[in-house]
Protein: HTH marR-type domain-containing protein
Amino acid sequence: MQDQRDADEVAGDGATPEGVAPGGIDGGVLDSRIAEIIAEFSEVFAYARTRWARFAEEVHPELKGVGMIVLQFIVKKGPVTATRIAQMLDMDKAMVSRQVSKLRDLGMIDAEPAPEDRRVVLLTASTSAVELLDGLRDRWAHGYHERFRGWTLEELEVMRDGLHRFNATADLSMPDGPAARCVREQGETAGAEAS
Structure:
């Protein structure tokens, strides 16, 4: 809050002074906060990667942590293309392809051609995979409850809302090719059927 007041005082006449980002925040302060957030995300990713690897071994000895990450993404965002997975998870397409192949071999995902464009393959999680991840989530919940002990409901809501806002912006970066249109149309169809 003090940073905002300081930036407002610097502007004085309403113009954004040099070195001050939009919103009146000093550019150096903004860069510093973003660097701190990136560092915190790095710790979260390391924690999550370790847990995913452990859970993957429990699910199947041939499954790796990255395969669990891909499966979780398909469960949450499916139907989805392998290209979209690679883009959203910032993974090499060959790596995603290997994981998709392994998940298909293990019966955890289904692949169907998109009705709008049969060249596009849409991936969805199998019923058994959804049930499996639901069981794992119950186990994860305990660990997260421990980490969030002492947080107020307001603090949890602020974190949830901030992460949701941050994650929602990632969807804006996907190019609008045939695969994107098929996934979007498939999602709209599923939403209309659920209504």
Q: What stands out?
A: The first helix runs from residue 2 to 11. Helices lie at 2-11, 27-59, 65-77, 82-89, 93-105, 127-147, 153-168, 178-194. The chain has two domains: 1-8+21-59, 65-195. The chain has a mean pLDDT of 79.
